[in-house]
Amino acid sequence: MTEDRLVLMSSVLFWVGLMLTTVAMRTL
Length: 28
Description:
By secondary structure, this protein is mainly alpha-helical. Helix content is 93%, strand content 0%. The chain has one helix at 2-27. The chain crosses the membrane at residues 6-25. Keywords: Membrane, Transmembrane, Transmembrane helix.
């Protein structure tokens, strides 16, 4: 259970960072 939550959190953080990077690149 703990490992699954860790993987889920890592995936969410990865996608959030990717979207923020895309928005930043478009803005700049």
